[in-house]
């Protein structure tokens, strides 16, 4: 059996899954391309105006004049500039095809959604992922939106969490993703909730400090009590007479009876 000729093989179909301008002047463009299978690649393009084509001032001798249709096409080409597009960078951004692309409002990050349900937040300055949320969706990401502005979005001040990326999938789920590790909101006692769950972090720290201070004072008191008891009631402790030890500690160390000299009336 003969193998197919290299000339008859069809080249792999590469599709541009998304594109976005990288600056306000339109001089930088990012494209994400991938096939039906395999890796996805991010390309950074630089767009600059080219040279203006030189117009023909007079017909060349010995050649027929231009037709009206050709004259209009030539005039249109002479009025505009040819764009010069150069590839500045190209890297593999995901081992699976990408199905959704979105650029952040400050043009610093590019949000990519993969067919495997993974969301990537790519830093365009370093060309490296800032964060990857692996397979947060069960099906391919069909829609993705990066943060449009640095200003607080609705609900962020109440929740204390900034939403950096939102993604949707065919699994009928919408994900809100953030780079924060903890909320900025200070917990307060709710009207319907009580106990430790309703206490704020500051109140918990205060209670912990009180418990620590209590046990520290208790430890110091017990240490002093043991030392005084040994110095005062050493004979009773050595005799192992529990009643005598108890009476000595209570009447001598902890509490003095009223008939002891100097208790009811100070000595003269």
Radius of gyration: 40 Å
The helicity comes to 25-40%
Principal-axes geometry comes out as: rod-shaped
State the low-pLDDT regions, or none.
Answer: 188-199
Largest sheet: 4 strands, antiparallel
Task: Write a structural description.
The chain is α+β, with helices and mostly antiparallel strands and 268 residues long. 25% of the residues lie in helices and 28% in strands. The protein has helices at residues 68-79, 156-159, 201-232, 234-239, 242-254; strands at 15-21, 28-34, 40-49, 83-94, 98-103, 109-114, 119-123, 128-133, 141-146, 165-169, 174-177. The strands form three sheets. Strands 1-2-3-4 form a four-stranded antiparallel beta sheet, with no helix packed on it. Helix 3 (201-232) packs across helix 5 (242-254).
Which helices and strands appear, and what pairs or packs with what?
Elements: E1 15-21, E2 28-34, E3 40-49, H1 68-79, E4 83-94, E5 98-103, E6 109-114, E7 119-123, E8 128-133, E9 141-146, H2 156-159, E10 165-169, E11 174-177, H3 201-232, H4 234-239, H5 242-254
Antiparallel strand pairs: 1-2, 2-3, 3-4, 5-6, 6-7, 7-8, 9-10, 10-11
At a glance:
The chain is of the alpha+beta class. It has helices at 68-79, 156-159, 201-232, 234-239, 242-254; strands at residues 15-21, 28-34, 40-49, 83-94, 98-103, 109-114, 119-123, 128-133, 141-146, 165-169, 174-177.
